[in-house]
Amino acid sequence: xxxxxxxxxxxxxxxxxxxxxxAASYGARVLLxxxxxxxxxxxxxxxxxxxxxxxxxxxxxxxxxxSGYGWSGVSGRFQMEDWAEAKVRELDRLxxxxxxxxxxxxxxxxxxxxxxxxxxxxxxxxxxxxxxxILIATGSAPDRMALPGFAHAWTSxxxxxxxxxxxxxxxxxxxxxxxxxxSILAGLGVPVTLAFRADLPLRGFxxxxxxxxxxxxxxxxxxxxxxxxxxxxxxxxxxxxxxxxNGEPLHAQAxxxxxxxKPCVESLGLATAGVQLDEKGAIVVDNQSRxxxxxxxxxxDVTNRANLTPVAIAEGRAFADTEFGGHPTEVDHRIIxxxxxxxxxxxxxxxxxTQAGAxxxxxxxxxxxxxxxxAFIGSQERTCMKMVVDSRTGRVLGVHMVGTDAPEIIxxxxxxxxxxxxxxxxxxxxxxxxxxxxxxxxxxxxTRTAGGIASKIQADLKET
Length: 464
Ligand code: NDP
Prior knowledge:
Cofactor: FAD
Structural class: alpha/beta
Number of domains: 3
Largest sheet: 7 strands, mixed
Family: Belongs to the class-I pyridine nucleotide-disulfide oxidoreductase family.
Helix content: 25-40%
CATH class of the largest domain: Alpha Beta
Protein name: Glutathione-disulfide reductase
CATH architecture of the largest domain: 3-Layer(bba) Sandwich
Strand content: 15-25%
Number of strands: 22
Number of helices: 14
CATH topology of the largest domain: FAD/NAD(P)-binding domain
GO biological process, one term: cellular response to oxidative stress
Keywords: Disulfide bond, FAD, Flavoprotein, NAD, Nucleotide-binding, Oxidoreductase, Redox-active center
Radius of gyration: 24 Å
Bound molecules: NADPH dihydro-nicotinamide-adenine-dinucleotide phosphate
């Protein structure tokens, strides 16, 4: 007996939608199951509303800087309610676009919570449907377990749904979400404290990028509480208090838990289906997103590889190309550009100085300067650029930037880094003047050589 569908996709976020549409384009009969709304974290609870909130915050800065450029009488007050209404309309519009794209692609959509009932069957809304293949693309959700007391704190979902601003905010965590929301809420005029346990925010990023981001947060008025040994967070009459083993308690009217996300695997029936999870609760997959159960694949955050929208989309399309298109495809997870939308923003592609230096000697090129736009009004803000180059081959291994338009600039440079560009190619590229980006083609001499044997020799010389 033939199956009801060639493919059932569980999860209507960026990855699931991309996989469903690509599979349908090859003629597959596809059903997409989604528990709530089409669009997933990126469109409804993440990248899109976050960036719309970031744009809202950016006007406070433009208003403050306008007088330096000769404008008088520029002032304003942020009405969160108005922004929230406009955001709801925009997300509704985007959801409808996704629904239409799925319908136009021939993908059938059903709203309902799905449970895997066997290698080739899924239960949803009282029915059991069969498919040749099942793809799990259920994403991730905020983790509330990092500290006792987090049950009452906001998550990023709650902040994006606010209708009014808190009088003060305590952000716990030092990753993407913590840094972005601390910066955005501070930009909207909220007194923000950012508490994290490391020396600098954004563990895993290049150290120079991390210290520039910390400087940027402080310049925006964020109280940066680094090296906080957090014990618990408690609700008080006036808000929240964060108890720390090594410092005064931190108080605020509201608290945001930004201590990471966990894969959404509950109630999917994975154990009975034979789908293995790793120690962090993520679905174990191979290079072609196959789980340990025959007939079941998984992509995106639920697999905890690189938890970024474009990666989930690439994994979803690679799955469909492999299984339905006849082109076996694997996603290359080695070079992935990413950005942190704080103010000024940070972005990077490729290896950090520490990662590259562990593999061999690297030349480090840097530029730190006051950009024209803010220097004109007397700001001390600095743009920071850094290039990590393999000393032996001249290949550019990593590019890092903190400054206005960094995400846009790094996206373009990511093409070059992915193509294996060499430092000499930057050197023979004509500058586009006057821009900040031109500094990347004007870096003549390395500021230092690091890593590999070269740094060992330098360290030995220092000691003698
Ligand atoms: P991250 O994993 O980036 O950061 C988690 C933070 O929480 C880290 O600073 C970590 O500290 C801290 N933390 C974890 N456990 C504890 C604990 N028990 N006590 C104190 N601190 C703790 O998670 P996010 O929630 O910021 O982001 C989730 C995912 O969403 C990321 O993987 C990211 O890829 C994605 N994302 C991407 C964005 C973008 O591309 N711009 C924007 C937002 C999210 P430590 O470093 O010390 O471990």
